[in-house]
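To illustrate this point, we now present one chain and its tokenised fold:
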Amino acid sequence: MGKIRIAIAGVGNCASSLIQGIEYYKSLPEGDPGTSTGLMHHNLGGYLPGDIEVVAAFDIDVRKVNKPLKEAVFAKPNCTKAFFPDLPDYAVRVRMGEVLDGIAPHMADYPDDRKFIPADEEACDVATVLRDSGADMLLNYLPVGSEKATRHYADACLEAGVALVNCIPVFIASDDEWIQRFEEKGIPLVGDDIKAQVGATIIHRTLTKLFMDRGVNIKSTYQLNVGGNTDFLNMLNHSRLKSKKISKTEAVHSQITHQMGDDNIHIGPSDYVPWMCDNKVCFLRIEGQGFGDVPMNVELRLSVEDSPNSAGVVIDAVRCCKIARDRGIGGALLSPSAYFMKHPKVQFSDEQAREMVEEFIGSIRER
């Protein structure tokens, strides 16, 4: 069915895992049982992971700007695992984007291998690069809190007629004004804030729904996350966390069918531990009351490599977005956003959202 031509804003750990993953799955022989590991389907709507092709990339770090893509994905401050390091020579060099609010001021206080170092370059015209590259869609992988920068790239997508998959918690695909703008242009939009394959949010949602389905009244819950990548370093600035906390909290709170006070649900990043690199550890606790108001609680510790844990979900979201483009569907994609993202326009249970995506893949039109 042809290629899926993507552009990437933010060549960080998540982009590195995604690009390595595309080449990893492409390298597996047909029929290898590993071809579906980490993915919803190996063949999704006629598209394979290896059909995804990066045609443009944007960043602001001096170690990445003007560098070949195959080098930039492994440049500092990236620290994710190199599980497929032998990348091909892509015909893509990383272009300089607008800095705007893409860097938290406190990042300057850390050693060079842990912070962003802005390149002394003039920013490119993103819309022009997108048009010239023939990109079908842009993946937004900017740091959490990049509100102005995300809107800058979203505007460029609208100007260039390019779809947007918004992987961060800046509210575009869940905002009525942005949804209307993408609908009017007939451009697909998926977002906001990617869910990991088996991450803290999806496990918290699943356990929460289990409590509800089994008649347990949840009294309080927390989710505390620590990690050592630049995402956690960036989020030490709590002023950048507002949308992230909203996104993660709503993803869990939407599964609770009774009222809970804000003080009884706490979800969000907690600290930065440099030696953990791209490893993320979640500490989760749910306290509830069962039959006869007898108390119970669940505690869980989850350890994952943060960036690879989301890359497979992005591959699935990208392919759904391309299917929408092929079918001429514009605006926010309801079912892919509900299944792949933490903060869609409308929340559904994960089981229902998956059924909706399966229907979307096999249907003629989005319902």
In short: The CA atoms of residues 169 and 243 lie 6 Å apart.
